[in-house]
Amino acid sequence: MSRILIKGGTVVTMDGKGTILAPGDLLVERGRIAALGPRLEVEEVGEVIDAAGMIVIPGFVNAHMHTWQTGLRGIAADWTIKEYLRAMHAGLAMHFRPEDIYISNLMGAYAQLNAGTTTLVDWCHNNPTPEHTDAAIDALQESGIRALFLHGSPKPDPKTGQKHFSEIPLPRAEVERVRRERLESDDALVTLGLAILGPGMSVHEVCLADFRLARELGLVASMHVSGSFMVPDGFERLAAEGLLGPRINVVHANILTDEQLSLLVSSGVSFTVTAEVEMQMGFGRPLTGRLRALGAPVSIGSDIESAISSDMFTVARMTLQCQRLLDSLDAIAETGSGPEAITVPTVEALRWATIDGARMAGMDHRVGSLVPGKAADIVLLNARAHGLHPVNDPIASVVLQAGTANVDTVIVDGVVRKRAGRLLAGDIDRRADELAASGARILTEFRAAQG
């Protein structure tokens, strides 16, 4: 792997010290950041990337996305959570073939790379067969994105004589097969985690089985908490079993009591906010402000590809401005006027989309900031473009003014995946046609089944 020297950019490191180099150079060697400084003198470089007029940032981490829904973009735009669960999981999901999962994951991952996301937490809960699972993994690996593949299970309505999905733990044999045959290494570009039901969506025996499986295999386990609990004291019971900790992730969690939230935060559990979907689907206030008040990190994700834009510029902006609005409304209700100062700075939003997302995925030792020794997951934004130039505050420019059109170069693990604004992916037009055909067939079959 050749050495790459990125020269003369405005480097926003997200190193926890507020380090911004303007100008700054980065040396990439064997897939890692080998050196960083104002001006690096390096010999025998395979490629020099001129970053003058560019903002250089860590690749984004999308901490929660159902990539398998990419072929159904837009259909959930006007759905509540009840409508979504009914139409998607008890309906549309059952018409997916392995090739549909493959093309959706491939094109969804390409879209993430194109928009500057280098790490994707793929919450894959439409795996009715091993072939579906393998197709999802194949696509992620082919795309070149870094991904935490969270293996879940479908949620159809049970047929006569079948158990409800809430009574069925993750299939241990299948998880062990994936771990043994497909994703055995935690140092690979695509790694394994679990998408579990948790106390909100399963009985306690299933909770115990899934949590214990995650603990036994040393995997991140993520769950949705978006409504009433099947086991109201489930988290308390899991804590008593010693099953909570940093590898456990809770998504949404808008309805948690203060006591539950404090228990989870004190146990080291991570949280992921998907503010735009939560606002649309009636989940209540995103958890952002309550987590900040407890000093807990926030990770953010786009959630359902079938509803909203999944680029992390939009995700970060929506999450930030939603919390600013809520803080303002609270202040007005209490004092009659808005806050004296901004309650959430833009740098926090960039942290949610980078290093805090990496922490949620158990990858903060590898990605999420630009420091020597970490993987070279790097994004260059064209700051000379209309709408972004001139840059007076690079962090503000990234969070509140930049977008996918500004993503010039994307590097994952030292490999250039997007160059000069063009995604380096084979036969992308043919793949796009395959994605459209897949979505059209699934919708046609679903509508025919509805009568």
TrEMBL record:
Matches recorded under SUPFAM superfamilies: Composite domain of metallo-dependent hydrolases, Metallo-dependent hydrolases
Recorded superkingdom: Bacteria
Domain Amidohydrolase-related intervals: 55-416
PANTHER family named in the record: AMINOHYDROLASE SSNA-RELATED, CHLOROHYDROLASE FAMILY PROTEIN
Family: Belongs to the metallo-dependent hydrolases superfamily. ATZ/TRZ family.
Name of protein: Amidohydrolase family protein
UniProt lineage: Bacteria, Pseudomonadati, Pseudomonadota, Alphaproteobacteria, Hyphomicrobiales
